[in-house]
Amino acid sequence: MTSTSPNDSTVEAAGCVLWRRSPTDGTLQICLVHRPKYDDWSHPKGKLKRGEDPLAGARREVEEETGYTASPGAALPTSYYLANDRPKRVRYWAAEAATGAFAPNDEVDRILWLPPAAARARLTQPRDRTLVDALLAALRLA
Question: 2, 6, 7: which is closest to 88 by C-alpha?
Fold first, then answer.
């Protein structure tokens, strides 16, 4: 679903709040990506391809940006904002990181695995911080 009508200029995107248990102590960690083009820290996300299912797009974007496959869980709140003077809708899911490993690419040059409070503080956009709280609620850790 890329738009709701031919006149709808909304950019459709999807992503995940990617999480894992720390390999050293089992605590919750959230993956943030650094995009050098914008010099920002965010959750992995991206534009949907024409006709692409939002959850499939979210999983594709996570793998492209982080190198990890995602095991999706609960739907999280959708973000709505303007990007380049166009409305943008980003659907999110909680997703546990499965297999994979990060390799820098053109879109993402670094990732960080952070505890929830540190992830919330590092996120560039305030709208992305509420997704950390939504993840904790979905995992019943809030």
Answer: 2
Predicted TM-score (pTM) of this structure: 0.91
Count of domains forming the chain: 1
Q: Give the three-class secondary structure for 51.
A: coil
**For residue 30, what are the β-bridge partners?**
19, 114
Mean pLDDT value across residues 72-91: 95
Q: Which domain holds residue 47?
A: 11-138
User: 97 phi and psi, to 5 degrees?
Assistant: -70, 130
Supply the CATH number for residue 99's domain.
Answer: 3.90.79.10
φ/ψ of 117, rounded to 5, equals: -65, -40
The pLDDT tens digits for 2-22 are 444 444 689 999 999 999 999
What lies within 8 Å, CB to CB, of 44 at 6+ separation is 15, 16, 18, 31, 33, 61, 62, 65, 66, 108
- For 99, the token pair is 């297999």
